[in-house]
Amino acid sequence: MASHLPPGSSAQSHQLETAGTVSDTHYAGPKGLMRWLLTTNHKEIGTLYLLFSLSMFFIGGLFAMVVRAELFQPGLQLIQPEFFNQMTTMHGLIMVFGAVMPAFVGLANWMIPLQIGAPDMALPRLNNFSFWLLPVAFTMLLATLFMPGGAPNFGWTFYAPLSTTYAPPSTTFFIFSLHMAGISSILGAINIIATILNLRTPGMRMMDMPLFVWTWLITAFLLIAVMPVLAGVITMMLLDIHFGTSFFNAAGGGDPVLFQHLFWFFGHPEVYIMILPAFGIVSVILPTFARKPLFGYASMVYATAAIAILSFLVWAHHMFVVGLPLAAELFFMYSTMLISVPTGVKVFNWITTLFRGSLTFEPPMLFALAFVVLFTIGGFSGLMLAISPADFQYHDTYFVVAHFHYVLVPGAVFAIMAAVYYWLPKWTGHYPHLRLSQWHFWLSVIGVNLTFFPMHFAGLAGMPRRIPDYALQFADFNMVTSIGGFLFGLSQLLFVLVVVLCIRGGNKAPAKAWEGAEDLEWTVASPAPLHTFETPPDFTPHRH
Amino acid sequence: MRIRYVWPTTLGCLGLPQSVLAIDWNMPVGVTDVSREIHSLHMIIFWICVAIGVVVFGALFYSVFRYRRSRGARAASFHEHTTVEVIWTLIPTLILVAMAIPATATLKKMYDASAADLDVMITGQQWRWRYSYLGEDLALTSNLATPRSEVTGESPKSDNYLLEVDEPLVLPVDRKVRLLLTSDDVIHSWWVPDLAVKQDAVPGFVNENWVRINEPGIYRGQCAELCGRDHAFMPVVVKAVEPERFETWLAERKEAAAQAALGVDREWALDELMKRGEQVYGSICASCHQPDGQGSPPAFPALAGNQTMLNDVDYHIETVVNGVSGSAMPAFRNTLNAVEMAAVITYERNAWGNETGDAIQPARIAELLDAP
Prior knowledge:
A: mainly alpha; Cytochrome C Oxidase, Chain A; 15 helices; disordered N terminus; B: about 375 residues; heme binding (chain B); transport (chain B); cytochrome-c oxidase activity (chain B)
């Protein structure tokens, strides 16, 4: 098909020559810093996003280390409760908005055009703008640590009125930086939708797109739907703080619970924003290393869409003990339980993809397999939390902390690492160092479980979250968790080492770096030249 | 599912002290019918997850070991199977329906707070709980009793470290007690695991829950919702006693409260007020304004050398009695009695180098409290 296309663009036939191509010669933009400030190239912007995310991952990680050091044993040893609260808050905000979300946007920038055969993102200048909003936003957020009264200290969920009437003065800066991060996300999402809907190579139907593209398309719609809600709720906070309104101030006739409804109407889809692209990554990696097509492609797409739609109907399961009427408790319990059905379908499909494959265990595959197992454990505790009567015991304990860290760290973060290992050969032209990658993987797996598994027990035994000091019966769990946390934190330095070594050298990777890889990105040279697919590649659907 | 002994032994071998070894791994069964039901729901859903986990992870690890290329596995090419996909959508759905039925029944029970024998109003305040026995004219303030020196490590930690209070909530067993929860400032959450009650205390709203305790005993819990700096330091302690003992206790406490409120009318000496005020300051005010009166600005202003306060007695009294709207300073008119407020105001005006010499008389505060 698509034989009317210009010659030299065939994806299926020759690889090294297509390699992208012709075009490096006519590139003569600015050099040095200005090159990165002004770039509109999807690969460079993708790189910027990924580097930004990596640095935020370490800053947020550093805050987590401070928290774990204080919680190593009972009593107040290192820091005071005020600063502890700032650390937990900043850790959450930085990891969610600074590390995980930008990492996925970075991967989208790099890989979506390559996977759909597009020359770049549809809106390149907007792309530049949405990236450069982020360093500004997060510099401002981090600057609050040095302001009088300290940084935000009300948890990443910033419940009013703790975050309004009782908040430190730096809250205004927090609101502004979240606005900027939100605008960045919305613009990024618009760009991704425009790219996917308009720039697919001729012949690629929606149901031919790699799962990573599909999950990002759905994620982008989620972002556009809910980021404005976040913007609304933080604007209401701003009005309460500075302009005398009483949206969330009961003394003025307002309702603190309204804040939670609005926040979680954003917050729950936000949770899926952080996991759906991870589903896509795993759905791309498992078939590659099983050398077998993804099982149930169509049901994967439908399950992702179902999860996205359901995500708008479950928000109040975060609020089971806030005093909801019985009917609301029942509705949100049932709808939340329902989410485990499409999620289960995905897990079953992944495992069936492995069944009767021909498996090898390169680093991306290791991370993807760990994702399937550990994310599922997070899914189990999620199902337990959905049972509203039991949630009266689980709510706001370390059981919840264990749950969401299982879905976000060995869930989202492992998927991001799997993606980095998977696509590093395409980005740098070299394979990552095998031994070091394996060390990084195994230390991470051990560290992550040592950190987060004991949290289940601490929570069930009665330890509330967000406390700088705790009763003696929680001491053992916390010591194990802290040791695991330090191990996990330190082993991420290996990750940086692997990435740096891979950029500087290593075994050369061919265009098709992985034997079982099928998608269009593997038809361009490794490393991918700055400009690819200036003419659309020929595309033949290969599996459905 | 209480594995109380295996793990402690292991840890014991590692040389950890005995006092930390009696650890719980699981949700407590608790001492109410509701807590038992919740515990069994928790165990059912836990075992369902274990069963699914065995099947799912079994299939995964089987595939990972059986179909390795290094063992010569050749990939099949199948990629869909409608029947299988329908089955594994339907079976989880059925399991969920089966789970939802008992969960719904328990939830309905938890929401029926009608026909209570006793009503207790629970008010959260940064960072203590206040308990009012409605219709009995008795209110208690419950503060953390763990000394600061245990927190900072200057003295050894007692067994109930951070889970002990000066004034527990005393409740009768075998009586249905309705709990009404609200807050003076931010959102708190009143939680006692053994009673399976966790309910947010939201400012401006009154939430409802209930408890019927089956066994006398002391049950400990904590505030569960982040409520600011000392969130970790506002425990909940419930002391459940036989109904007859509860009646006796109630009568005694009401008598004692009446005694304490006496003396409003007489003239108090500065020394007397200072002595009483120091106690009140230590248990109520010091957590924010600090024992040395230096506060922690900007949220909690210093009282030592605070000219606005020292130059204007009325402002000082007004602030303590009615609080400062829109700030972290609560109104103490319902928490402290006239004598206590007079004493603490006197103390603040004469401690840490503040030397006004003012002796604020309880009568002056009582007048303010009686005013409409």
